[in-house]
Design goal:
CATH topology of the largest domain in chain A: TIM Barrel
Structural class of chain A: alpha/beta
Oligomer: homodimer
CATH architecture of the largest domain in chain A: Alpha-Beta Barrel
Largest interface: A-B, 37 and 37 residues
CATH class of the largest domain in chain A: Alpha Beta
Radius of gyration of chain A: 25 Å
CATH superfamily of the largest domain in chain A: Glycosidases
Strand content of chain A: 15-25%
Largest sheet of chain A: 8 strands, parallel, barrel
C-alpha cells in the first residue's frame, strides 16, 4: 500500500514499518513530489500494520501527522486502518434535514461508566424514546492520556484509542443511522494540543502571525499553507467519507485566521459541495463563533462563509439571566426581557451595541436569517465545565425554572441542543478533566483556567483537572432517572420534543412566521402563525418568580376560532380558550388557535 | 474652544496650555464621557495656541495624538489649527472621474530643492503641460526628524512641519484645484512609526494579536477598538473636509486586521458614503494590497471592501521582466508574455496559481472587474527606493524599453501613475532616507532593510539612510529635462498622455472592450473596439530586443475600412494601413481602423 506524508521543507523522509504480525522492521526511503508530499509504496502491508516516519536524517521516528489510529496513544506508532474492511449497515440512511434535528451533546468518556463508543450503543433506544435525533459527539481526535474533553487533540485523523478507536466510532455511527439518529462530531481546527503534537516535526502547520488564546494559530495563509489547508479540508471530508458522519461542529472558528484572497472557508465550502454532489448526501457544517457575525451562515457569494448552522450563544445568555438569580454576574450585558424577545425574533442580541464585557461595540444583525441556521442550548459542555464547581443548570435554579428553560429551548424557532443528562436534570457536576503526562502542559492548563475564572469572578476553588476522581465524578448517574424529580423533568422534555416534532408551526423552521412580544414586564409571548393565517400558536412564558402574568392571548386580533391549551408546565394554567388569562409564576403555556377564517394577524 | 482626547482607561486627564502670545501656562482638568473621550473648554484660545495633555497624575505632558500640527516636531507641543481661517479659492472644483485620472506620485521633500509644498506650486504648469491631472503625495503625516519617506508618521492628523505644515498643504491643494489637478494623499493605517509615537500613552491603539512586518498591529477589533476605529475613520474624512483632498491611497491594507462582524472597512465605507452625500462630491479611496484579492474593490454587499481603486503590482512585474534583463531575478514567478497579456486583459496575473516566491497558491481572479478599479505604474517610490542603489527604471534599461514601458502603461486599460521624474527619464537615484533621532529606531531600520535586500538578492551596498547626502542625492534634477535624451522621453510621454486623454477608446475606461493576444512569441497585440464595432484601435508591442515582429493587425476579421498609424515609437514602423507589417525590435505602434460597416470583431 501507499504511504504519504506532507513535509515540504524536509530534505528526506523514511517510512519505518514497525515489526509485528510476523514482519520485521523495514525502512523505506520516500520520494517527494512538487507540492511537498513524500510517498512510498510498501508491499505486503495492510490494515493493522504499524509504522512511523523518520524526517531528514532518519535518526528519530515520529508518528504520522495524519495517522488514522494511535493504538498506544500519542507517543506510539501509527496504525494503518483498512476503512474498506468495515461492513456498513446504513445503506438506507439518507440523513435528516437540518431544521428537523434535535441535538444531544455527548462526552463519550463521561456518558457511561465504561466511557466507550460501544457503551453508547446500549443507550440508543433511550434517545429514540426521548425524541432526539442527532448525537453531537465532543471531539474524538486522539489526545494525550486516557481522558480529556478533546479540545487538545493532536492527531486530527485518529479516533481516540481509549474510546474504542476507528472501529468503535464506526459501529456507533452505524447503529445510530439504523435507528434514524444522525451523528455530528466536534472538530478543532483553530489550534492543536500541545502534548504529543508532532506536526511541527513535519512542516509549517503554525504561524506566529496570529495569536490565539491557546498559542500559535494554524498557518492557513502563510508560506506552504496549501498543505495545511489540504490537511483540514481533507479531514472534513474524511469524517464524512470513512465514518459516515452527518455533520461537523467546528470549534471556535473566530480563532481561525486567513487573509488570503481565497480563504480556508472558501476552499472548505467548495470541497464540501463537491463531495455532496459526489456522495449524494449532505454534510452539515456548524460553527462555534464568538463574533455575532451573520456572514458565518451567509453564502460565499455575499461575502459569507456558508456554514449551515451557528451556535447562538446570545440565546443562552439572554435566557440564563432569567433562570439563575446570580446570572447577571456572569452576563452583565444581558438582563432585559427585550433582549430575550430579540433572541427569539432576530437571533443575535448584540448586533452592533456597545458591550461592556468586550469594551467595544459587538456584532451585526442576524434579523432575516432563517431559524434553521442557529443552534440553541441551555447548556453545553462549556457552561458547567468552565465553572470551578462544574455546576449544571439543574443545581443553579429550581425545577420550575428548568421546565421554563426546556420550553424556551424546544419551542424556540431554532435547532435545539440538549447536553447529556439535561433531559432528566442530572445533578452531578461536569468538570473540566485531563490526563496529561508532561508537567508543563498541566501547569499551562491550570494557569489558563485560573485567568479564565478570574474574568467571571466565580466563587469556589477549582478541582484539579488531572485528578482521576474529577473525571469519575463527572460521569452521568443515569440510574437516578427513576427518581421523581428526574422522571418528571424527563417526561416534560419528552412532551416538549414530541410537540416540536409533530406540530407544523414548530417543526418547519425555515418557514416559521414568528413574533416575540414582551408582556406585562416579565413575560414573553411567542406568536406563530401559518402562511394562510388559519393556524396560530401562542407560547406564553412568565419569568417572574412571584407574580402571575395577566395576558391577553387574543391580542393578535384573531376574533373567532377554537382555542386549545396544548401544553403547560403548571396545573394552575387555565386550560380553556379564555383569551384573558393569568399565567402562574415561573410557568409556560402553549395555546393553539384554529381560526374560522383567515385574519390579518399581527 | 473645546479640546478633546480619547483615553478610555486613564483615571484623569489635564489640558496644559503652553505659555505664549501673551498667555501664561494654564492647566485645566478634563472630564470623561462614556466612550472614553476627555473634554475641556478653554476660553481665549484659538488658532496658534500650543498645548499638551497630561494623562493620569499629570506629571508628564504629552502631545495630542490627534494633533493637527506639531510646529516643533514630534517631541514638541501641539498647535491649534483654525481650519476655518483659510481662504479657499476652489469653490468651482467638482473633482474628476476616477477613470480619467493620470496620477503623478510626488515626494514633497525630494521633488524640489526647497522640499516644500510651496515649491511644488511653482511646477504646476509643467504638470498641466505634461497632461497629468492627479498628484499623489507620499505621506505627509508628521514623523520624527526633517526628512523621511513618510511611512513612519506618528501624528496622523498633523501635516509635516518641514514641508510647510497645514497652511502649506492647503495652498498646494488650492492651487492644484484651480488648474484642474486633483490631489491624493498616501495615508498609513497599518502601523504607526516608532519614534515620537505617543499613542500608547493614551489608549490601546495597538494589539499583540496580530503581527505586522513593522511591529504590533493597530487595534481595530479588540477591547476599546471603537476609539481606534474612530481615530482612523475620522482621519479619512478630515483630509477631505479640512484639506479638500480628492482621494487617499491607503498603504498596505493587507496588514490591517479586523475579525469583527462589522469591520473597519465596513465602517469606513459607510462613513465615506455619508460624507460624500453631505459634501456633494466624491472621496476616492485607493488601496495598496499584497493579496491579489478582488474583494478589495468589490462592493460591501458582495463581501467586498468597496475601494474605488487598487494598485495593480502584477502589471508592473509582468512588464518589468521584459524591460530589465535581470528582471527575472526579482520576479521569478513572472516572465512569460502570456502573463503580460493576462495583466492587460484580466488584472491579476496570479489568480490562484502556485507562486514560488510565496510557497503557496496566491490570489483570485479579477477578470470582469472594470479597468477603472486598478492603478498601474512602471515605477513608484518603492521600486527604486527598496533597492540598495535606489535605481530608477531609467538606469536599468535602454531608451527604447523606456518608450515601450511608457506606452504599455499609458495605453493600458487601467488608471496610470507616473513616479516623479519618470516622464523625462530622471536618472538620479531615489534612495530610502530618514532622519531619526533615537539610535534604536535607526538600528531597527537598518536591520529590517538588510533582511529585505537578502530576500531579493540585490547586489551592491546599501547607503546609510540617515546620511543627509542620501536625501540630497535623491532630489530630482529637473534642469536636465532640456538634454536631448530627456527631452525626447518627455515628448513621448506627452504624446501618449494626449492620445490617452483624447481617444475615446482609451479614455472611457469603464466601457473598454479589450482583447490582449500574444503574437509571434514576443509581441503583444492589444485590441480595443467601440460598442458599435465601427471604431477599432490596435496597439502592437514588440518586446524582442533583436527581432522584428511580423504581425497581421487585420486579424480581427475587419475586412474593410480606413487604417491609420496613430502613434509609433520607431520611425521604421510602416505608417500606412498595411495589415501585414513588421514591427521593429523594442517598439510599439498604434493603429486605428474606422470600419465602413460593423463587423463581428474578435
Amino acid at each position: 500500500m501507499k504511504f504519504k506524508v506532507w513535509a515540504p521543507e524536509k530534505r528526506a523522509m523514511t517510512l519505518v514499518l514497525v515489526p509485528g504480525g510476523g514482519l520485521r522492521e523495514r525502512r523505506l526511503p520516500m520520494t517527494r513530489d512538487d507540492h511537498g508530499y513524500w510517498e512510498a509504496e510498501a508491499d505486503d502491508v495492510g490494515g493493522g500494520a504499524r509504522y512511523f516516519f523518520a524526517p531528514d536524517d532518519g535518526t528519530e521516528v515520529v508518528p504520522d501527522p495524519a495517522s488514522n489510529y494511535q493504538p498506544e496513544g500519542v507517543y506510539g506508532p501509527s496504525e494503518v486502518v483498512d476503512h474498506g474492511a468495515f461492513s456498513w449497515n446504513d445503506g438506507d440512511w439518507r440523513g435528516l434535514p437540518f431544521e428537523e434535528l434535535i441535538f444531544y451533546e455527548v462526552h463519550i468518556g463521561a456518558f457511561t461508566a465504561a466511557g466507550t463508543f460501544a457503551a453508547v450503543i446500549d443507550r440508543l433506544d433511550d434517545f429514540v424514546e426521548l425524541g432526539v435525533n442527532a448525537l453531537e459527539l465532543m471531539p474524538v481526535a486522539q489526545w494525550s492520556g486516557d481522558r480529556n474533553w478533546g479540545y487538545d487533540g493532536v492527531f486530527l485523523y485518529a479516533v481516540q484509542n481509549t474510546y474504542g478507536g476507528p472501529q468503535g466510532l464506526k459501529r456507533l455511527v452505524d447503529a445510530c443511522h439504523r435507528r434514524g439518529i444522525a451523528v455530528f462530531l466536534d472538530v478543532v481546527y483553530n489550534h492543536i494540543g500541545r502534548e504529543g503534537n508532532c506536526l511541527e516535526r513535519y512542516g509549517p502547520y503554525f504561524t506566529d502571525k496570529y495569536q490565539t488564546p491557546w498559542g500559535k494559530a494554524m498557518n492557513f495563509d502563510g508560506a506552504w499553507s496549501d498543505g495545511v489547508r489540504d490537511f483540514v479540508t481533507d479531514n472534513v471530508l474524511y469524517w464524512a467519507e470513512q465514518y459516515h458522519l452527518d455533520g461537523l461542529r467546528l470549534d471556535a472558528v473566530h480563532e481561525i485566521y486567513d487573509r488570503n484572497a481565497v480563504t480556508i472557508w472558501d476552499r472548505l465550502y467548495e470541497a464540501v459541495k463537491n463531495w455532496e454532489r459526489r456522495a449524494g448526501r449532505r454534510l452539515w457544517l456548524v460553527a462555534e463563533s464568538d463574533g455575532n457575525d451573520p456572514r458565518v451562515v451567509r453564502p460565499p457569494g455575499t461575502g459569507g462563509r456558508g456554514f449551515d448552522g451557528l451556535w447562538l450563544d446570545d440565546f443562552h445568555h439572554a435566557l440564563y439571566v432569567f433562570l439563575d438569580p446570580k446570572g447577571w454576574r456572569y452576563y452583565r450585558d444581558f438582563g432585559t426581557i427585550d433582549q430575550l424577545a430579540k433572541a427569539f425574533s432576530e437571533g443575535f442580541v448584540h448586533s452592533g451595541e456597545f458591550v461592556k464585557f468586550r469594551h467595544r461595540v459587538h456584532g451585526a444583525s442576524s434579523a432575516g436569517i432563517s431559524g434553521d441556521h442557529f443552534v440553541v442550548f441551555n447548556q453545553n459542555h462549556d457552561l458547567p465545565g468552565n465553572r470551578p464547581g462544574g455546576e449544571r443548570l439543574s443545581v443553579l435554579t429550581d425545577v420550575a425554572s428548568l421546565r421554563l428553560a426546556a420550553a424556551a429551548l424546544l419551542l424556540s424557532p431554532y435547532v435545539p441542543m440538549l447536553f447529556m443528562g439535561e433531559e432528566y436534570g442530572e445533578e452531578t457536576p461536569f468538570y473540566f478533566f485531563s490526563d496529561y503526562r508532561e508537567p508543563e502542559t498541566t501547569a499551562r492548563l491550570i494557569e489558563g483556567r485560573k485567568q479564565q475564572f478570574a474574568v467571571f469572578e466565580f466563587e469556589g476553588e477549582a478541582r484539579d483537572p488531572q485528578d482521576a476522581a474529577v473525571f469519575e465524578q463527572s460521569k452521568l448517574r443515569w440510574e437516578r432517572r427513576q427518581e421523581r424529580r428526574h422522571a418528571m423533568l424527563l417526561d416534560w422534555h419528552r412532551r416538549l420534543i414530541r410537540l416540536r416534532r409533530e406540530h407544523p408551526l414548530l417543526r418547519d423552521l425555515s418557514k416559521v412566521r414568528l413574533r416575540a412580544d414582551v408582556v406585562g414586564g416579565h413575560g414573553l409571548m411567542i406568536y406563530r402563525y401559518s402562511a394562510d393565517r388559519l393556524l396560530h400558536l401562542v407560547c406564553v412564558f412568565n419569568f417572574s418568580a412571584d407574580t402571575s402574568l395577566p395576558v391577553d392571548i387574543g391580542y393578535a386580533g384573531v376574533q373567532q376560532g377554537e382555542w386549545r391549551l396544548v401544553l403547560t408546565s403548571d396545573e394552575q394554567t387555565p386550560d380553556q380558550g379564555d383569551k384573558a388569562l393569568r399565567l402562574p409564576p415561573r410557568s409556560v403555556a402553549v395555546y393553539e388557535l384554529r381560526a374560522s377564517f383567515a385574519d390579518d394577524g399581527p
